Amino acid sequence: MITKIIQIADHTSPYLEICGAALRDGELVAFPTETVYGLGANGLDEKAVKEIFKVKGRPQDNPLILHISSRKELEPLVENISEEAEKIMDIFWPGPLTILFKKSKLVPDLITAGLDTVAIRMPENLIARNLIRYAEVPIAAPSANKSGRPSPTMALHVYDDLNGQVEYIIDGGKTGIGLESTVLDLTTSRPTILRPGGITFEQLQALLKNLTIDKGILSTDANIVPKSPGQKYKHYAPKGEMFLFVGDRDKVNETIKEEIEKYQKLGKRIGLMVKEEDVHLFKSAIVKSMGSSDEEVGQNLFGILREFDNMGVDVILSQVVDNSGIGFAVINRMMKASGGKIVQV
Ligand code: TXA
Ligand code: MG
Q: For the segment 38-63, what is each residue's pLDDT rounded down to a tens digit?
């Protein structure tokens, strides 16, 4: 298969109708959302959905998110919609929030990996929404990376992972948030965050007083299994070994300098991820700016990890961000990328 990359200026592009029809007909189409690029397939077509698992190399027990373009598309996919869910959707949809509902019979078991809940999201990105609207079916879409690689935030990342395996890649530029959606379970007695993401804990807690966070995503204890199957896999793993440096800023930078010397003596290629304002402090490694704000770090993280892979970096030394707001999702991804290797200074 020759993958066609379609550069589109905006959501009014006539190509979206063509790609929407291709999706409906069972082809795979990668497309931008406000979080990361998605690998789309007709969510009601088992053959197309199977292809997603195959192309990504995704474990069969990891369920997929169904993407919709308007609220009326939700009803046929779910058993019921609680008042709580209505309230949350009113405020956060369209947007980077995936909500779990009890699934209806219409949803193939392959999508939910046999679970009785289905994850649904209405993206904010208008290219994504128009594409889904033209497809006229719910679109199953995991992140458009090979399983285990960092999620794609640019069409080029999708191309690197999936060239020759998807019909179209819609290039809509760099994604805005750069981290995946928050996954929120509203089917249990307490609303629970199964994956931190674009909508923050604080934003949700303001509306859901008894909001909690799945223990599996906070713990490094392998015996505590996350409720969201995707969270149990080693994700976002760069090829180089990654370490996170936590503590006082000056001490962190001093320690990183010492580590650079150590690894250089061993002949290692070192990649450094630091805040924009600290870039000038380091000369003797491949230094990448994560940006200044936590939002910028979120936008840049996956792309930098991919750049390090392309450069054959052996060791990645990284600063961290505060664990609040979007920082919670950033830290979650950094923990996964590093396999939890923290250096407390
Ligand atoms: O931002 C996003 O959510 C992106 C864009 C493309 O929309 N999609 C995405 O999909 O990140 P994926 O497949 O890479 O991650 C979906 C996560 C996985 O961790 C999966 O285990 C979880 O959602 N999930 C899906 N259905 C679930 C269910 N019924 N119960 C628990 N977790 C579920
Ligand atoms: Mg993913």
A: 999 999 999 999 999 999 999 999 99
Token representation of residue 30: 């990668």
Instruction: Among the bound ligands, name the one nearest to the CA of residue 100.
Output: 1
Is 0.85 surpassed by the pTM of this model?
A: yes
Contact 192, 210 (CB under 8 A): no
Ligand 1 atom nearest to CA at 119: 26
CA–CA separation, 314 and 88 (whole Å): 43
Edge-to-edge strands, sheet with 97-102: 4-7, 168-171, 29-31, 38-42, 139-140, 65-67, 117-121, 97-102, 182-185, 192-195, 212-213
CB 97 within 8 A of CB 198: yes
Give the residue, by CA position, lying nearest to ligand 1 atom 6: 38
- Residues 318 and 282 sit within 8 Å (Cβ to Cβ): no
Cβ–ligand 1 distance for 144 under 6 Å, the answer no
Q: How far is CA 146 from the centre of its chain?
A: 12
Q: Measure the CA–CA gap between 334 and 236, rounded to whole angstroms.
A: 8
CA distances from 16 to 10, 39, 130 (A): 10, 15, 7
- Using CA of residue 114, residue 123, residue 183, residue 174, what is the dihedral sign? positive
Q: What residue's CA is closest to ligand 1, atom 21? A: 230
Rounded Cα distance, 261 and 243, in Å: 15
pLDDT surpassing 90 at residue 218? no
- Any ligand 1 atom below 6 A from CB of 200: no
**Model pLDDT for residues 79-100, shown as the tens digit of each residue:** 999 999 999 999 999 999 999 9
Q: Which atom of ligand 1 is nearest to the CA of 111?
A: 26
DSSP single-letter state for residue 76: G
Q: Is 319 in the pocket of ligand 1 (CB under 6 A)?
A: no
- Ligand 2 centroid to Cα of residue 335, in Å, is 15
* Ligand 1 pocket check for 228: Cβ under 6 Å: yes
Q: How long a stretch of residues is the chain?
A: 345
**What residue owns the CA closest to ligand 1's atom 13?**
142
Give the position of tokens 């180089």: 240
